[in-house]
Amino acid sequence: MDAKGRMVIPTRYRERLQERGDARLVVTIDRDQCLLIYPLPDWEEIERKLMSLPTLDEHTRRLQRLLVGHATDVELDGHGRLLLPQELRKFANLDRAAWLIGQGRRFELWNEQRWDERREQWLNGEEWPGSLSAELGSLSL
After folding, report:
1. Hey, which CATH number is domain 6-127, 3.40.1550.20, 3.40.50.1370, 3.90.400.10, 3.40.228.10?
2. Where do the structural domains in the chain lie, given as residue ranges?
3. Among 14, 47, 87, 101, which residue has the least CB neighbours within 10 Å?
4. What is the CA angle 43-49-50, rounded to 5?
5. For residue 129, how many other CB atoms are within 10 A of its CB?
6. 96, 114, 111: which is closest to 1 by C-alpha?
7. Higher model confidence: residue 1 or residue 113?
8. Residue predicted with more confidence, 96 or 113
9. Which of 69, 66, 64, 81 has its CA nearest to residue 25?
């Protein structure tokens, strides 16, 4: 990240985005204090699903408020950079040292120190549930 809050998307990811023919992305917050970055078509699908959930459920409303309420459209410039709004950079405590983690149809953008701490917690088994869900238990890696 540079001093103006612009982040460069690595070439390998940028090429995949360009293959889809769209340089428009959506950035929102995550409860792990990182940012989630989605290609616009993928975000629109997620937003539709989120907003179709019953709003009388407290957890649903909270998720809608956080994810949809903070969703911000951004666009890659000709150099593969995107400008992150100050509010989102502040939320994720982003400065020059950051990690962009590919997660299938989205990216996660982490403050480097926070990423290192969380990764160590996960690798050391901290915050790991006692048993895996049926879906995870049946997964073969």
Report:
1. 3.40.1550.20
2. 6-127
3. 87
4. 85
5. 7
6. 96
7. 113
8. 113
9. 81
